[in-house]
Amino acid sequence: MTGMNAEKQQAVKPHYHGHRDRLRARFLENGAEALADYELLELYLFRSIVRRDVKPIAKDLIETFGSFAEVIAAPLHLLQETKGLSGKVALDLKILQAGAVKLGQQNIMHRPILSSWTALLDYCRSVMQFEKHEQFRVLFLDRKNRLIADEVLGKGTIDRAPVYPREVIKRTLELGAAAIILAHNHPSGDPTPSRSDIDMTQQIIKAAKAININVHDHLIIGRNDIVSFKSLGLM
User: Quick one: CA dihedral 84, 86, 89, 93, positive or negative?
Assistant: First the structure.
């Protein structure tokens, strides 16, 4: 009787179990590079959604938001609107994003930024690339150009984040920083500096220079590229 029950259970075993095992094996053998974005998302969802086929959910998420990175960066309320995705699972995805951001931050915090420039760009991309509204950040450095703080000093609409030079300078003095790097995103995806971006940057540089604070650069994060004011000769 026991043998018959075992055979019956095996016969009704969900079809996706074998798929999950195969996907895990591919990941173990070849890493994430061997998987499409929806497959990597499936791997993560396996642990949150145990008793359902998650491939359709993963594909819906990628189709809706565009990529693995865009899925985990999506607002919580939009994730919750996805069919088959509970509030708990949506929150799990946001926790994954928070972990990725924290990892990037650890790679640059208290380290000389100018010699860790690639890590800095990767971090800025991870925290701002898929933001739906404009966000203005300031990275504060000590006299050895080590990052001591990273703060959002302005949040706005899809095309503007209000930033006041006096607030930037005030916070720089409060932290005892010797230099700063400015960064903001363009939700449109195009990182080309606007006239207002250039004017605002010049105002901050002028105010910082008066108190011997160095502004190393201003970075604009687009969908696929990052533009440096210094590289463009704008500062």
Answer: positive
